[in-house]
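Our example pasted here:


***
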Amino acid sequence: MVNTFTLMRPFIHLLPPETAHNLGLCALKRRLLPSAPLTHFPELETKAFGLSFANPIGLAAGFDKNAVAIDALLRQGFGFVEAGTVTPRPQAGNPEPRLFRLPEDKAVINRLGFNNQGLTAFVEHYKKRDQSLGIAGANIGRNKDTTDAVTDYVLGLKALYPYADYITVNISSPNTQGLRALQQREALTKLLGTLQKTRQDCREAYSRYVPLLLKIAPDLETGEMEDIADVVQAHNIDGMIISNTTIQRPALTSKYHTQETGGLSGKPLFDLSTERLKQMYKLTSGTIPLIGVGGISNAADAYRKIRAGATLLQLYTALVYEGFSAVRTIERELVSLLKNDGFSSIEQAVGVDVAG
């Protein structure tokens, strides 16, 4: 079967990356892209942090920053979609150009800087979604010029608590100065302690429990990973996303843009993010559901993440090179990989490659 995106990709990639992205988002909003076939794979059903997922393949934050196309994205076959990152106040982000394709590496470098329309617009879009289509999370961050980061995250949590299926605390983007410092033990303890208290207040006010997740960077030392594992477990965080983009520059073969500042995503991130995934799975003894992100472009990649400790997965950069059809292809081939290894469900394969 001919992949329409493969035929269109050379023309799409003639456009600047951010322009192409915005056009794609517009096409989704207007229902101009066909939905994925309604195919269900019972082997891929999974549960995490109190939620039931039809399949483990999710869309990472950053694609739909303002929650304008959640329904259309879920119709592409994702088991869940994470909108954002959203900050309390609107912000334009960093100057353009700020998004770069590295086609020979199947990678992207971005320094977008949390460009978004702010919480008010995000909530208005988000609460209009069709909840019957699937699970939608919300990713919250801080404004770049804020003087109190904790307050920004509290505002995000409060605003989205009535509507989100889960909320991710993003402290790992490399494109907001000082953001990654929130991963340090003392700062993280203060942040998560405050958010847990806020969540308890919201839980009582709205009579619903919303899982709280933490998204971390891949550029952490062993000691920092150990600190994060300790703090996350002490504050009963429901899940973690591993990982965000990297500021490292592994060997790259693309002719252009390899030295641009910003976060690198895509295939070159796969080994680093998968190692961090294994490390966190081991540090938490497999007790906290982990979402594996970074460099997944096919079913073999997805399966390696699962065996490395991921309960769920997220894609983004692969869509730049493969289009949305990659979602269903990965799901279908993942079922075959599970069966080949004698697994009847995805849950049986989680963490099997991590030594005790």
